[in-house]
Amino acid sequence: MAWLQLFAAGILEIIFAYAIKESDGFSKLLPSLMTLLTVIGSFWLLSSAMRTIPMGTAYTVWTGIGGVGAFIVGITVLSEPITMLRLLAATLIISGLILMKVGGS
């Protein structure tokens, strides 16, 4: 259950990263509210997952899901550039997440 909570927290982190971009410096109400709600939800789920999963593993996986997810949203939704170096960086993050999961088991 803790890993599902951690995954959900990571998904909410992706949503809040996108919402904060769309809030235009918190000048737009709906994206600003979405940012605040998803931040609260993400932190709550992360803290719940940390009851079972070691802090270092949970925090690394949470930020990794959010970082790679925001990278993917940036490319697919916001038309951000795809470069080999950025793809390599995302691949290394994913590799690290896998190692954290395996190492934490």
Describe the structure in your own words:
This protein is an all-alpha fold. The chain has one domain. The protein contains four helices and no strands. The chain has helices at residues 2-22, 29-49, 55-76, 84-104. The model has no long low-confidence stretch (mean pLDDT 94).
Brief descriptors of the model:
single chain; 105 residues; mainly alpha; 4 helices; 0% strand
The arrangement of helices and strands along the chain is HHHH
**Using only CA atoms, what is the Rg?**
14 Å
Which parts are unreliable, with pLDDT below 50 for 5 consecutive residues or more?
Answer: none
Number of domains: 1
Helix content: over 70%
Main structural class: mainly alpha
Number of strand elements: 0
Basic shape: flat
| Separation of the first and last Cα atoms | 14 Å
The DSSP helix count reads 4
What is the beta-strand fraction? under 5%
Please give the structural blueprint.
Layout lengths: L1 H21 L6 H21 L5 H22 L7 H21 L1
Helix pairs in contact: 1-2, 1-3, 3-4
Short overview:
Helices cover 81% and strands 0% of the residues.
